[in-house]
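Researcher: Structure prediction, please.
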Amino acid sequence: MRLDVESLRAFRAVVDCGSITKAASQLNLTQSAVSWKMKRLEERLGSPLFLRDGRDLALTELGIELLVHAEQIVTAHDDAVDSLQRSQLEGTVRLGINDELEADEVASLLARFRRRHPMVRLRVRMGLSGPIAQLVSGGDLDLALIQVLEPKSRDEVLWVEELRWIASPTYAPDMSEALPLVTFGPNSNYRNLMVDALRSSDIDHYIAFESESSAGVRSAVAAGFGVALINERGVTSECPSWEVPGLRVALPTASFVVRVNSRSRTTAVRTLVDEIHASLRVDA
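Model: Predicted structure follows.
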């Protein structure tokens, strides 16, 4: 079992602030990112950390015990970082990131990397996983944080998520008519998954809205344009999970991976990979 520092930092903030919403604001993260961290902590520990009574949060016995350790671990980590953060590492790192990662979480990670290694120049590009992966294989990027359905042998898996169909809470389609779809566009693996699953189940459908950003997809779904496929972390109260009536095809899982160009072997690249692991990896 592994308890990562950033999840413990988020846990401490939730306890201090009394709510996930306030903790997210304090940490400059989205509410869904903090909720996800709490969910993963509870899954790893195998027991709830909070007793929820309406909007009030109270710690369970396990939560009280974890808080003591969280204070010690986060404080020790930050003290070590403060004393070691300014390295003499130099170079340029070209990083690609997938839009479905939590932007605030990745931004915080990269900000810490820049503080610790001020002489390393970061060049970051955000986009869909498919095009970003092509830039890595072509040598235009040194490494990428992307989402794939089938990891390659050299990929370093950070975590695995279920895929979910989502729809507006008030969405009630007439299944005798074509099902409207909201997709990430023709370059997205999700679009192919959606279309193949619906075709295999003989469900008529059409593309109603396309956006290459997860925010755009969720906004369109919340507005009632249609249904979409998204990673589990992207499920929200505005876009809850939805079961497609008559669907006969199970969905695969999605792996979030670090993919490094085989020709990018600099110390700066390896250092960033190590810091990505420390902040984002979820051990099974």
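Model: The longest strand covers residues 156-166.
Researcher: Thanks, that helps.
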